[in-house]
Design goal:
With 326 residues, the chain is an alpha/beta fold. Strands 1, 5, 6, 7, 10, 11, 12, 13, 14 and 15 form a 10-stranded mixed β-sheet that branches. It has a 5-stranded mixed β-sheet with strand order 3-9-8-2-4. The protein has a single domain (3-324), classed as Ribokinase (UDP-N-acetylmuramoyl-L-alanine:D-glutamate ligase, 3-Layer(aba) Sandwich), CATH 3.40.1190.20. α7 (191-204) packs across α8 (216-223), α9 (271-284) runs antiparallel to α10 and α10 (289-303) packs across α11. It has helices at 19-25, 37-49, 61-71, 86-96, 145-148, 164-179, 191-204, 216-223, 271-284, 289-303, 313-324, and strands at 3-6, 10-16, 32-34, 54-59, 76-83, 100-101, 105-108, 113-120, 126-133, 153-157, 183-187, 209-215, 235-242, 245-250, 255-258. It is built from 11 helices and 15 strands. The longest helix has 16 residues, at 164-179. α6 links the parallel β10 (153-157) and β11.
């Protein structure tokens, strides 16, 4: 196996809504909010009562990236936790159908599978409301590390910093991967997460990791500045996306930009995850960083033109072939 992801195992429930509905709900656009089970159920009931169409699929930031890498042909696995319920079944089936190894996807005999209500407004912005459920309880002792040690890269989403269990698991996974010479990639996930947990995230990178994935806003929040050199203290290679602007790549001895691809965005949900999945595939194939980023940008441009955080499974290979002809 070439890559294994670790993150919240969630089912995405996506709704296309208007701005006035978002305002009426008092939800701030573009951010991710953590909800209690009760808050999440109230929101879900409201949306269903308003007869908004719902699209459900396995989700979570790292899940979406690993899904993309696997659909592109990268041998992949995932570490997470679901419950014995309908959403847990949806999640595991989605992964299995995409040839993702799920023996480290633990099924809890109690509790509820986490979900993320994704509200998509006409400007293509996505606003997320997350109930973590049992995904926040993934313990290092439950993981088969022997399987992890057979991989080349561990990909972690920063969202796992929000719960005691997953924060501890991330720390132990990173330490074990350093000891086993497994490369480590961290996605900074969300500006709010970076702002609230910056010190913990930095502590995970006391020993430099290999890759950081982030967008412009997350990088700014991490560095407290418009200059991003501070990130070099924590990772050997940093990829900073910025919508339709070029992606900035920081390497140990150079900085360069890779142009983005034009796209008619209808839903930006998962754009960063799609980018990361494309880059991970490129890296696993031994491509240069710049070429991997170019493909990540290409894939993200295709992703934002569709509703949902992912493409249909067959589309990934189609776009890989299209890209290879460029």
């Amino acid at each position: 196996m070439k890559v294994i992801g670790f993150g919240a195992a969630l089912v995405d429930k996506q709704f296309l809504i208007k701005d006035d509905a978002l305002n009426a709900l008092g939800i701030e656009k573009g951010l991710m909010t953590l909800n209690s089970e009760e808050e999440q159920n109230e929101l879900l009931t409201f949306l269903q009562d308003q007869n908004y169409d719902q699209i459900s699929s396995c989700g979570g930031s790292a899940t979406n990236s690993i899904y993309a890498a696997a659909a592109l042909g990268t041998s992949s696995g995932f570490i997470g936790k679901v419950a014995q319920d309908e959403d847990g079944e949806i999640y595991n089936t989605d992964l299995k159908n995409n040839n993702i190894e799920i023996s480290n996807c633990i099924t809890s005999s109690n509790g509820k599978t986490g979900n993320c209500i994704v509200l998509i407004t006409p400007d293509a912005e996505r606003t997320m409301n997350t109930y973590l459920g049992v995904s926040s309880e993934t313990k290092f002792s439950e993981i088969n590390f022997q399987q992890v040690s057979a991989t080349n890269l561990l990909f972690i989403e920063a969202y796992v910093v929000t719960s005691l269990d997953t924060k501890d698991t991330a720390k132990k996974l990173i330490k074990s991967c350093h000891e086993s010479n497994i490369k480590i990639a961290l996605s900074l996930s969300d500006p709010g997460i970076v702002a609230g947990f910056k010190d913990e995230l930095k502590s995970w990178m006391n020993v430099k990791i290999d890759y950081v994935f982030c967008n412009h806003e997350e990088a700014k929040t991490f560095c407290d500045a418009n200059e991003f050199d501070d990130l070099r203290n924590y990772a050997k290679t940093i990829f900073i996306t910025n919508g339709l602007n070029p992606t900035i790549v920081l390497e140990e001895d150079q900085t360069y930009e890779v142009s983005a691809y034009k796209a008619k965005a209808v839903d930006t949900n998962g754009a960063g995850d799609m980018f990361a999945g494309g880059v991970i595939h490129g890296l696993s194939e031994g491509w240069e960083n710049a070429e991997s980023v170019r493909f990540g940008n290409f894939l993200a441009s295709k992703g934002v033109a569709e509703i949902g955080p992912r493409l249909k499974k067959n589309k990934y290979m189609e776009y890989l072939k299209e890209f290879s002809k460029k």
